[in-house]
Amino acid sequence: MSVKIKIPASAILTAKDGMLVLENGNRCSRCDRTPAAYFETHRLKYQVGLRKKSIYSKKFDISRRYQLKIAICEICQQSDFLAQPDLLDRDGSELGRIVQFHALTRMLGGLLAALGFLLLTPFIPEGGILQPLKQIWQIPVAVGVIVLLLTWMSQRKYHQRVLADFEQKHPGFIAPHRGQVCTIVLEDEKDPSLTALELTLENEAWAKEAASINQWDCATTTEPVPDTK
């Protein structure tokens, strides 16, 4: 059993700095451990008024990015780092900084390699002002590949280090699922009480209490939370 919380558009519109934070007495939303000093983050879009729908894109009257942050404990944060690091919250924590650094170096390596291959293509004409760079296309490709390799090695090192510590301190721990979100496109903003986001959590008691605190509707559902690991 799980609980589906219906979050109205008004909660998203009034969220400070575009961050909708869901907490409940400093308890973890997944396992009820305390303290819950970290967050499970979902990067979402608030969208109103679908104007055009095509194969390639959709146009809306309003399209705004925001984040849903749900309180979790350190153990669940470490579990997320091991299972799906790219979804980890960039909150300035040690693991968050590691993930952010790896994302930056991975992007840098990819850009360098792409630049080298671009110099090799006919898009950069022979004999132009970029001719000297065209002759050394192998250098950015090589540097980019080296950066990507070092990033992969660093990721493995940190993963193995956290995994060894995690297995020693929490043997047999079964990680609960992340929350499942479903965004709803509104026809207009005339009624901010309309549901703009549905959040499904496994922790029934935590979810019902959090919904009650925020005066949001919720209901028990038999649909399991999908495993995103």
Question: Could you explain the architecture of this structure?
Answer:
This protein has one domain. The protein has 229 residues and is α+β, with helices and mostly antiparallel strands. The protein is flat. The mean pLDDT is 91. The chain contains six helices and seven strands. It has a four-stranded antiparallel sheet. The chain has a three-stranded mixed sheet with strand order 2-4-3.
| Averaged pLDDT | 91
Helix percent reads 25-40%
Strand order of the largest sheet: 5-6-1-7
| Total domain units | 1
Order of helices and strands: EHEEEHHHHEEHE
Number of strands: 7
Sheet-strand content, in percent, reads: 25-35%
Shape field: flat
Number of helices: 6
CA(first)-CA(last) distance: 19 Å
Stretches with pLDDT under 50, minimum 5 residues:
none
Question: What's the gyration radius in Å?
Answer: 22 Å
Main pleated-sheet profile = 4 strands, antiparallel
Structural class: alpha+beta
Task: Give the topology.
Blueprint: E1 2-8, H1 9-13, E2 19-22, E3 38-53, E4 58-72, H2 74-83, H3 94-120, H4 131-135, H5 138-169, E5 180-183, E6 195-201, H6 204-214, E7 217-221
Parallel strand pairs: 2-4
Antiparallel strand pairs: 1-6, 1-7, 3-4, 5-6
Helix pairs in contact: 2-5, 3-5
